[in-house]
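User: quick one, sequence for these tokens?
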């Protein structure tokens, strides 16, 4: 792939426009996040481990992933197992998550909460320990 010189590109149609929609994203240079702390890294590794257990227990039962209630938009966000794992791994390696496309027309019945997963796993463990 050949690089194109900046001065050869067409002018930015939003240059110096105070209503430029790209301003909401900020300057990429301003996004240099601090690295995650050791405790955050430990929590993320535990979440990834738990996620693997939850997927192993629930995917064969038809559960496609986890639903998270978003505090910013007050809407549920549906994450398939692989998407959630990729997001957590990216957070672990980069210290932040990339934006991603939401699930297309998800069936809410195919997703469960993190708390449901935890309770289900605890129930399976308690049941196996009883024998």
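Assistant:
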């Amino acid at each position: 792939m050949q690089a194109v010189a900046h001065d050869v590109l067409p002018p930015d149609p939003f240059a110096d426009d105070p209503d430029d929609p790209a301003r909401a994203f900020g300057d990429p240079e301003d996004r240099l996040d601090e690295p995650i702390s050791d405790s955050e890294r430990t929590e993320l590794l535990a979440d990834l481990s738990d996620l693997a257990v939850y997927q192993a227990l629930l995917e064969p039962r038809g559960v496609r992933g986890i639903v998270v209630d978003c505090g910013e938009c007050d809407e549920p966000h549906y994450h398939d197992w692989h998407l959630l794992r990729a997001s957590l791994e990216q957070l672990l390696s980069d210290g932040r998550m990339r934006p991603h496309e939401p699930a297309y027309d998800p069936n809410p019945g195919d997703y469960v909460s993190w708390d449901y997963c935890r309770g289900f796993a605890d129930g399976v463990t308690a049941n196996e320990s009883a024998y």
